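Thread: quick sanity check before group meeting

JM: Hey all, I'm pulling together slides for Thursday and realized we never actually wrote out the predicted structure for the chain we discussed last week. Dropping the sequence here so it's in one place. If anyone has concerns about the input, flag it before I start.
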Amino acid sequence: MIRETQQHHLFDPAVDRIETLFLDEHIRVIHKPCNLSFHSDDAQQGLVSQVRACYPDDTLFPIHRLDKITSGLMIFARSKESNSALSMMLERKQIEKYYLALTHRKPAKKQGSVIGDMQKGRRGSYLLLRQKTKPAITRFFSKRLAMGGCNYWLCLLKPETGKTHQLRVAMKSMGCPILGDQRYAHEASDRAYLHAYKMRFELYGKRYDLIDELFHGQHFQLVNERAVLGAFAKPERLAWPKKAFLLPFDHQSQSPSATILLNDQSTSG
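JM (edit): ok, ran it. Output follows.
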């Protein structure tokens, strides 16, 4: 039986813990640790319960979900109004989302799109189909990294839909399953190397540019410096297909913005 819990790395709050990255009147942005379930189960208190317990004076609404194995950005709305607005934007695909993934295997292409219907398979896994009735859409770029004589590939993923296991299945379909993803890669590591890196959107006339640079894990030391990320550090500036949703670049705009960097003092909350 395939299990989602990684055998060599359990959630350790002393190392990879929930942290607030940004706070304003509309949203609270937190770092989700890897191997922490969205909802509580018999073995562990879930992310939502933990976040609400950490901030009891806030009324918090999660606007999206991450798989248990995935670390990175999670946005909680702080009112019913902002929750409704953000949920509608997600439904209309008006939020840019970018993920980083590591793999030991060379992707079939340096850049492109993975498009196809998804179907539930055996033991909780999902399959990518050739048909495109209600397809999952994932755009990607990839680049080779080298460390200690070993080759890795860093993939920048831009999901335009929100299907279960979408990115994990997309990586497998490219011949490069995510490092440490025991369900689709069948290999053990200290964690599965999938991280929700960046989200961009406009809410109530304010531009949000949210980044989570808390890269925990032995192999994520490869991307702990922006110089290594290179162009991936600003993924919205890459040459995505015209069909991909991107906020317009307007350098002359006078509207307020929120550029969220982990070490920026304005992001503490």
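AS: nice. The chain has a mean pLDDT of 86. The chain has one domain: 19-267.
JM: adding both to the slides.
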